[in-house]
Amino acid sequence: MLLNRKRALSIMEKKGLDILIATTPENVTYLSDFRALGHQYLRSNIFAGLPREKSMDPFLILPIGEYPDLISLHLSWIKDVRCYGTFFIDSSPRRVFSKSTQMIRQQLRNSKPKNPTDLLAEVLIEKSFKSKSIGLDETGVTKHQFEQLIKNLPNGRIIPAYDILREIRMVKTPTEIELLRDAAKITEQAIASTIDSVKEGMTGTELVQIFNSEIVRGRGIPIFTSISIGQDSYLQNIQQPSKKRLRRADLIRFDVGCQYHYYFSDVARTAVMGAPTKKQQRYYRAQLEGEMAALNTIRAGVKISQIFEAAVEKVRKSGIPAFRRHHCGHGIGIELYDPPLIAPTTAGTLIEGMVLDIEAPYYELGFGGVHSEDMILVTQSGYEPLTTLSRELHQIKL
Predict the structure, then answer these.
(1) Is the pTM here over 0.85, yes or no?
(2) Burial of 213 per CB tally in 10 Å (0-12, 13-18, 19+)
(3) Angle 143-152/116-126 helices, nearest 10 degrees?
(4) Residue 328: pLDDT band by 50, 70, 90 thresholds?
């Protein structure tokens, strides 16, 4: 189970919510373990409801076309599943079916092509939430749907809850931590394999192809592959990988990640073709020392803004006096950017169990970019690294 139920119920109580309803793919997966193709890519509506009262069952509302996979592949721990819409799968009346197949056939027969928001209101009324405090993840519904739910539940108090779900998700469960650790490992292995394959004259496009193949080999999904080279190594090059060819002293900046069972990685490393210049060495070392200063600050209870300040101050003292940065890291999980953002204006303190990406990269027009970024787990006394690939400036033998 991905859900940190104890934390969820505690925050729901603090916010005065009787039930929490997820609507976006990330939040529905977090509450139910279920992810649907139609929800992810076709913007169909799926709702996962978590009551604060432990004696009440959570529920899942989804299009009938998603139900066969849910049941046959045991994709959710939630038992109370309601369906809407129309979908056709024929069945022979004379065959003897398994229990799960019988459930699918029954749902196919019973599902009605009703509005999903109306069905949500019916379920909430059935479960006695019609006059309760309802936290609704507002980002996965339209303005009209939100207003329609208010109309259907005139005595209820419906509160936008996207930020509440993100607050719950900040602290990871052991299952989530292992998924993030695996995603980081897949990514690091792909970086190392790509660096081992680099040869003078290769294009950025070729590096992207090698990297993505290694991610797939490791059973991950390539999500963002930012590999930039030479004086353009400050660019993201995600939509269009570089067609330029690598030459002596060119930088190669990896800012890359994958998705593994819905969980993200985000790792950065820098390589150079042959021996680095003095400026490349100085600037790479400065940003790395900034990252290390931030890491050395981390432990439960530390102010988030303090981590940012430690990174920026150290980079400036280590060789880039005019260094500026808008953030020096972020949370990571079922979304690439989970809260908190490691920024000067972010309030609050670190909590044990957060997983963060820490970085202090430097970009300069006409020079390029130098970058190291690592995933870590916040502990009571410090942190546990989830990434282990060497942070040194990798030198490609020519």
Answers:
(1) yes
(2) middle
(3) 30
(4) very high
